[in-house]
Amino acid sequence: MTTTATTLTLSDLASGVGATVVSINDNANGQVDASMTARLGELGFLPGERVSVLRRGPGGREPLAVQVGDTVFALRKIEADCILVNRAPAP
After folding, report:
1. Which member of 14, 19, 49, 56 lies 3.0 to 4.6 Å from 85 by CB, making a disulfide possible if both were Cys?
2. Reduced to 3 states, what is the DSSP secondary structure of residue 67?
3. What is d(CA 91, CA 81) in angstroms, rounded to the nearest whole number?
4. pTM
């Protein structure tokens, strides 16, 4: 059986699924600037860090409760769209 990683944005990651940060993409959409992506890095969203989406806001929308390390943050979708993650497929 082959196990390949699937790259997606943090906002596309299903709740409760673990993943690893690949990179922060500051070209994800027109509403994001370099200072926002730098701030995400300062918060700990760095390549190699384990992350998971714990919960989503009402109706499955914003904000997203996201855990990185031992800390939980509330992110807007535009911020979560900037974070690329790898999710290993289920065995």
Report:
1. 19
2. strand
3. 26
4. 0.85
